[in-house]
């Protein structure tokens, strides 16, 4: 299997979607409004992870294109929980992206404490050998959710999915602290948004 | 007129098209083939230039969106004259870009000595206030054509379109030297392409 | 006063220091160690802010170069409170940077709740008119500290330094939630670092 | 040999020098003067090329740091032959770079037709394990010289240094065409520089 060739359209999809979603941020700033998007990052899944996941989920390598939804991944980080909804609407309204699945792990958080909103989308790219459809997973989260998720991800690798009870409890407390910070932030949000508008108009740092 | 707001979709169009066209280059390199694209640059027309051109061409400011074709500009630079054709085909074959006009100043160079291939295209962008169509001018040239054009452009500004005869003659000789270099390059091209393929496969710099 | 000319060396200082500090992050990742640096951002102080501050602090415009310490600003964001110390040591050990002042608002947080470590440094840049010394302020913070500081900054502008009691109380609660999250993170830190090492070695995402 | 670790300071040197030299270009534009620097690119020598060169030149791998001068390479491209001198002066005047060798293949071009000015410099970088001196080769060329050199480089790989007579003759003619273009450009240069100044002041594209 020529991985370089196979992954080329996914790399292109990630590059294009980063530019497209980052564009919103700049546009909000230009009209002095709070941007629901703080950061946009993206990656193509590393080959060992693809092989690992294909084995676990019993996906034949010749069906990766239709069966593995996160070969291309985009992550959008927001300041406030309320921003997540706005980002989802921006994505749903685009004619160049087709949403094929949504998973709301915020309303319905995972047992581990994981919170995030996932969209799986179809996105067409043009390569030197023509147009090709790609599946891309877009994760939308607050900074606190993101922080926690990064840590849980690392611990899961360390313990190969079997995190000891003591560590699990600590992780749970960190999840609660992150959740609490998001709550405090939401309360102060109205104030901040108005302040932000004021601030951008003055164009003073 | 709120220029910042008006030019936002053009800035976005330029950013997206740069990523899309640069993607080709990387793809050619990955399959060890000569890339017809050497550089891709882009710019939104500066406001004083817009005002100046609107005055000269009698375009009312509320008709800029449909009447001024180069508010957003993309420039693709190629190594060989032969590459220009390939680039044009790549653009014509995209479903996200609609070519509305083509001007071939290579087969039919301007009196001044100017050579380049121009495409005017329709390109849709999604902003925070919805989808919008933009006109973008894409110029395709060799490096030698580009070098010459940059200089002629500067001299035209200096002399406000009335370049003295002596300078004009020198400019003409430089145009011929650039044209001659392109010719020598074309002749050596077959060799180079094969060599390039060889070179990339070895992955030795 | 030619601001463009005056601010040129500060822009150059910011660009160079971003590259230099971001380099560390990549190096830690390459040896599979936890990086004490998560993000590095930078900015040159906008002209209206310079004028505003000069007025408030009674700094004559011809003494800006020696009297205003944050014309060039660098911000380093860390995952853990413990990382801040490591970053400070990396900076102190460089022969191309001279630390001229340090302010520890973490051990000794401001009344408002503000926490951060500030270093003021001398940094030489080479411009087209020769070498010039610049003063640069480097702020080192955790992500939670940074989040809180951004909000307080905006609110201060809105209320011109006179934030109403109710808002102040909310801001205080958010500062406590951020502080609490930093604490939970520190506790889980040893685990995470080891996990991170494990994770990078496997090179699985 | 841990190549990743060994090449880390060279990668950092390339990144820093690119920012430092590109800074000049921006500064010239800001004061509306012709920039002697058109492009700055850089690369760390790929591992197969290092091994190949070490074999050819009999350099033991543990002496690469002091014996191989182009592990880190920077290329500065200029519009005019006259600009090369200015770039060399800018580099010689920096206190953070020490020139250890200069080779003038412009006054004294290689038999093949190759023209370029080479500087070998010492440049200190700070890594997570402390300060380290690196050798960097800086090549300064016009665009026409660069174009020709790229092609000759590829052909050399194809024919493993033994380019057939016919191709060699063609290459020679292309070198002459490039040289001729540089000559025409020099003649028109005074005009262009003044025009450029005029053009930047008007801030019209």
UniProtKB/TrEMBL annotation, chains A, B, C, D:
Source species of the chain: Scopulibacillus cellulosilyticus
Cited SUPFAM superfamilies: Nucleotidyltransferase
PANTHER family: GTP PYROPHOSPHOKINASE YJBM
Residue ranges of domain RelA/SpoT in the record: 42-163
Pfam families, A to Z: RelA_SpoT (PF04607)
The protein, known as: GTP pyrophosphokinase family protein
Pathway assigned in UniProt: Purine metabolism; ppGpp biosynthesis; ppGpp from GTP: step 1/2
């Amino acid at each position: 299997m020529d991985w370089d060739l196979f992954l080329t359209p996914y790399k292109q999809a990630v590059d294009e979607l980063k530019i497209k979603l980052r564009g919103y941020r700049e546009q909000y700033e230009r009209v002095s409004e709070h941007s629901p998007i703080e950061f946009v990052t993206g990656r193509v899944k590393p080959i060992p992870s693809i092989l690992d996941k294909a084995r676990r989920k019993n996906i034949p390598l010749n069906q990766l294109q239709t069966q593995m939804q996160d070969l291309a991944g985009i992550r959008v980080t927001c300041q406030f929980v309320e921003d997540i909804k706005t980002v989802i609407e921006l994505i749903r309204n685009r004619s160049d992206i087709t949403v094929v699945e949504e998973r709301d792990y915020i309303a319905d958080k995972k047992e581990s404490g994981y919170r995030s909103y996932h969209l799986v989308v179809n996105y067409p790219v043009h390569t030197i050998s023509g147009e090709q459809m790609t599946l891309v997973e877009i994760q939308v989260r607050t900074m606190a959710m993101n922080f926690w998720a990064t840590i849980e991800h690392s611990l899961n690798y360390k313990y190969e999915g079997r995190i000891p009870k003591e560590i699990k409890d600590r992780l749970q407390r960190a999840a609660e602290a992150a959740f609490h910070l998001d709550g405090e932030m939401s309360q102060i949000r109205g104030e901040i948004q108005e302040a932000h508008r004021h601030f951008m108009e003055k164009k003073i740092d």
